[in-house]
User: Which sequence fits this backbone?
């Protein structure tokens, strides 16, 4: 890290803005980079991370050497302590602030460097209130403060990589290389199954790893037991009356639950459409995977998802359980991979990556790569990853196996340039909710955005069951999008009617 920060430290005497993008070989390297930068004697540094758990981990690692200079700012800090920290920041006592997005707004004078670790993290985008991206706000504060900004990630966002390739950011590729896990894709169209959702290959490798005393994790981004409660007579599935999406069985609570609005209902004894009694479960969630894994492997599995973990104290408890040598098998969702920082797993089995790969989002390939790269970070030396998929020829898997993220980014950029998607254009999302007159909303958007491309409307329901209508405006000129947004807010601000939310650069 000392060699890699020489370009940054060499420019610190100049009070001018500049952004560096560091393609880190590992998250551990990112933490080492912070320590190395502080070790140069540098003062007045903001270090931003996407999750509270990661901020606490880094602060703990730095406390032994920088305790008197360091403070932590995030939503888990009480109001009284937060006020005390702010007084000390203003007084210059605390000149190193580590935290989540809240830390970006610390009133620190004469900032020298703003560091944004795991800059690709989706948690940086604020989806409530004023919608903005902490990463982009960090770059803007660096510009306003005339200081250096350092963005780091094991898989930088395509937007940031584009800025580096085009010369807007300075690119740093460390000389150090991390050991890559062995990655194997399993074609679920032809693979023998140990159960409907688990391949025989994944099961055999799991047994082999466990016999060597290694830990195994199963990742499935779907909580609950089964995703469909299906009538074999007429094919009807139980759906949410408000959101019209399939209800998920939660076996422990003995209810069907909507994962969108949260409504629950009792498990029916017969089909509400045809009255038939041949009801069966279909699809997979973490509860069902946990049950099947415990039977197939003959080992107790710990489950880590938002149904099992409701409070921050429960997160800490389950992390302590995983750290014990007795816990060898863990089943969880993306929530688990965001919270874990223990590189002790010998195998990761990814069960439903196709759900991420095939969402209607032009960033789906990028998000899939980042998700898999984050899972790979949890594997120790000699670790393996088994990816179950029906699309093994997808380029994402090839680039991941080869560790060639730059080629992946170049291919992504070529596709986006052809489709005129970011970073070759800007997006503006406009959402109307609560008593929406769809034709009127569409007329308003088309009139305001007559000089830009308008996609939509998409009509669905929010978590309260209210109808909402969403439009996506696309243009290579952000001034046109800003003008369209101003027209819409100007017209709707003082008019009683539906709520209007405008999201710049939605993710």
Assistant:
């Amino acid at each position: 890290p000392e060699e890699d920060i020489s370009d940054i430290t060499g420019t610190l005497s100049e009070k001018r803005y500049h952004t560096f993008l560091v393609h880190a070989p590992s998250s551990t390297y990112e933490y080492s980079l912070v320590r190395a930068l502080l070790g140069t004697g540098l003062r007045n540094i903001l270090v931003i991370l996407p999750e509270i758990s990661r901020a606490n981990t880094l602060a703990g690692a730095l406390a032994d050497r920088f305790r008197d200079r360091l403070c932590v700012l995030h939503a888990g800090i009480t109001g009284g302590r937060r006020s005390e920290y702010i007084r000390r920041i203003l007084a210059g006592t605390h000149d190193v602030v580590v935290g989540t997005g809240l830390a970006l707004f610390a009133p620190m004078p004469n900032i020298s460097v703003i560091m944004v670790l795991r800059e690709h993290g989706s948690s940086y985008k604020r989806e409530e209130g004023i919608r903005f991206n902490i990463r982009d706000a960090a770059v803007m504060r660096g510009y306003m403060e005339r200081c250096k900004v350092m963005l780091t990630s094991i898989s930088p966002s395509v937007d940031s990589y584009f800025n580096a390739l085009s010369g807007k950011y300075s690119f740093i590729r460390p000389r150090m290389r991390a050991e890559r896990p062995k990655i194997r894709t399993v074609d679920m169209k032809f693979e023998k199954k140990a159960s409907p959702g688990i391949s025989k290959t994944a099961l055999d490798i799991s047994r082999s790893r466990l016999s060597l005393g290694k830990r195994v994790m199963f990742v499935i981004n779907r909580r609950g037991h089964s995703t469909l409660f299906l009538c074999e007579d007429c094919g009807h599935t139980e759906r949410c009356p408000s959101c019209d999406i399939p209800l998920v069985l939660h076996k422990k609570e003995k209810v069907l639950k909507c994962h969108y609005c949260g409504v629950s209902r009792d498990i029916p004894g017969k089909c509400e459409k045809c009255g038939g009694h041949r009801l069966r479960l279909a699809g997979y969630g973490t509860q069902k995977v946990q049950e099947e894994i415990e039977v197939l492997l003959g080992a107790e599995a710990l489950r880590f998802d938002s149904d099992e973990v409701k409070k921050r104290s429960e997160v800490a408890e389950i992390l302590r359980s995983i750290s014990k040598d007795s816990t060898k098998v863990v089943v969880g969702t993306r929530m688990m991979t965001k919270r874990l920082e223990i590189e002790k797993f010998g195998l990761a089995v990814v069960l439903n990556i196709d759900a991420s790969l095939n969402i209607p989002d032009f960033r789906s390939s990028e998000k899939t790569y980042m998700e898999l790269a984050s899972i790979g970070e949890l594997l120790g030396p000699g670790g393996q990853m088994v990816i179950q998929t029906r699309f093994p020829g997808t380029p994402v898997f090839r680039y991941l196996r080869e560790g060639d993220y730059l080629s992946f980014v170049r291919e992504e950029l070529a596709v986006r340039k052809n489709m005129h998607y970011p970073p070759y254009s800007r997006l503006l999302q406009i959402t109307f909710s609560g008593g929406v007159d769809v034709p009127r909303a569409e007329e308003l958007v088309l009139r305001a955005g007559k000089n830009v491309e308008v996609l939509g409307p998409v009509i669905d329901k929010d978590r309260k069951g209210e109808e909402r209508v969403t439009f996506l405006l696309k243009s290579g000129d952000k001034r046109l999008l800003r003008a369209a947004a101003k027209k819409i807010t100007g017209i709707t601000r003082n008019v009683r009617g539906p709520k209007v939310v405008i999201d710049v650069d939605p993710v």
